User: Fold these one by one.
Assistant:
Number 1:
Amino acid sequence: MSDFLMPKLGADMTAGTLVAWKKKPGDKVRRGDIMAEVDTDKGVIDIEAFTDGILDELLVQPGTIVPVGIPLARIRAEGQEGLAVVAASIPAEAPKILKPSPVVFPTASPPPALSGDELARLRISPSARQRARELGVDPRGVQGTGRGGAITREDIERAAADASPSPSTPAAAPATKLAESTDRNRRMRQAIAAAMARANREIPHYYLSTTIDLKPALDWLTAQNERCPVADRLLYGVLLLKATALALREVPELNAFWQDDRLAIQPSIHLGVAVSLRGGGLIAPALHDADRKSLGQLMKELRDLVARVRSGGLRSSELSDPTITVTSLGEQGIEAVYGVIYPPQVALVGFGKVVERPWSVTGQIVSRPLVIATLAGDHRATDGHRGGVFLAALERLLQDPAKL
Amino acid sequence: MSEAEIRQTVLRVLGNIAPEADLARLNSQGRLRDQLDIDSMDFLNFVIGLHNELNVEIPERDYGQLLTLDACVNYLTSALQRSNRT
């Protein structure tokens, strides 16, 4: 018998709200199966099983806020007897089902309790959901006017305006509303604050940068995309991701965690790709085994990942196991980004905007598309020299895009 | 397909990409990217959506002709006329 625990999906998570169970007692579960949906600061996440067996008993009801590490259910090995039989021999201390009376934490007050099914059925964008929390609007009562009846930010704002205090509303109402503004936006901000403050407190960062000529990569990409139907076209960002993953093979100590005062190099390269949310906030879920996948495969997975960041359906493994973060602020016109490392990772790779600039090629000044690649490294884990080897490898790999 | 139908289709595809946006308030001559906070991945999904809905091939070199709602409608109208003639 093993416990299925509320997982820790990143250094900044302390608890999650169980939204819905996807399995019922007696169901066979395989490692990687989706067991439940959990609402976190990063949206509703599909939580995967980490072991094979039979789901024996659910310990928590939907709607409950559960701290990280607390059992949600019990899974028994196949062939092991079920609870009904075993229970008779166990004294009355068998764990009781946590009732959906929310556990309250000092740093975050509970969100309005939505039942799991209701939350799952609502067609509402993360941004509108966030707005609903901010304004204390219950999205269940809101008429959606977006595509397919989806609830938009405007719908939420209209509902909030309609519900503005009538003369009979007690004076305490605004205060309550203020208290309820400990919503997802604030919770996500708090979570990012905790992780980033820890990073700045604990990690002695060093920063390196190099300018890379992207002409070979972009020329190759243009020719490639010319031949492709639109659904198979690549974004240049995928070339940067693949080159990053391959360069990490050459400097594996950057693909690592700093844990218990020592460096733990990770066997697989899972790139945490920073994706910004509409309306603020940031999630960096993993592109798994990026060094071993073709560009086409990576592109497909990246598209899928970005879509799920924005509309829901991220899996727990994608949030809990990135081994390094890659961020690009080029879309905003930023030329170089010097990032803060997400602990326990030990490095962050940044890419800026691709800009046409004068560049010297064999003694001639020519115009070339250039990108500034940066590395933020944890000086406990690596030294600047190794960071430099990594950036040099990255540049070299991008000069020969056909081999990526 | 009429211009109005093409416009409706473009708006529908945009709605799938930015579900929280109020498209009724979209300035048809303003850049979509700025108004809807669209990045390159969103834009690619937009082009794929247009391709699926209208069966129009949009080569990458033409992306610059799809920057505003009006420009999209113009581009797609003539692209559809071209493909009807052939």
Number 2:
Amino acid sequence: MNCTRTDLEGESRLHIVGALDTLTVRDIRPILDAVVADRPKRVTVEFDELTLIDSSGVGAIVSLFKRVKADGGKVVVVGAHDQPLAVLKLLRLDRVLGA
Amino acid sequence: VAGGATKEGAGDGGHPCARVAFQVQALIAHRHLVLNLVSALLSYVETADRQFHDEMITAFGEAFNNIVMHGYSGRSDGMIDVVAELGADEVTIRLMDTGLEVDFASVVVPDLDSMPEGGMGVFMIRALVDEVTYQGGAVNVLSLTKRMSSREDAALP
């Protein structure tokens, strides 16, 4: 898993490549914590190159969503397809996250 | 990882046409290795499509996580035996471990409206396969069966 952060005028964009799961979530947590600490108005999480997600990965994104929202910001997921999109739909997160 | 395979029948009438077994250390570090193995096995299910594959892999992955993180919590010496029975249009995968027994039946359905950050694994397993059985004991056996014939009722859109 690789996560690249790009910041632009109050928005943080996170581009995630590979699998976001129990094995890799530990690598992304410091990045998510740093994003939350900066209190962006909008966070866009790009899933177009995400190949697989599990409940731990979903938990990390939901945690990001809740913390950014608590600071008045918004988190959206874009580009989700195949297994990651299906998991978001199963957990009824696709609409909340805009996926 | 150690393992073996046998071919048992023609795959008609619901009987498995191939039975593959392997054993793996119960370590999260091996998660992708195991998922890749199971993914390769699923490619031998003649009628399986992408959705069937993704649902089974997702369910199996959650089951693997649960055994490693809860069954063998705090241990690095645990082993998981995996037996896959591959039929023409169905798959049964059994995961066997000697870790802590899980009270599978008592796991409640998470309140999805509250956007939980955890506790979704068992819900996902139950939603994604057609039949789930769990037998605890000296050896805990979790069995996941998925059939293409029930494809219309599949959970993932």
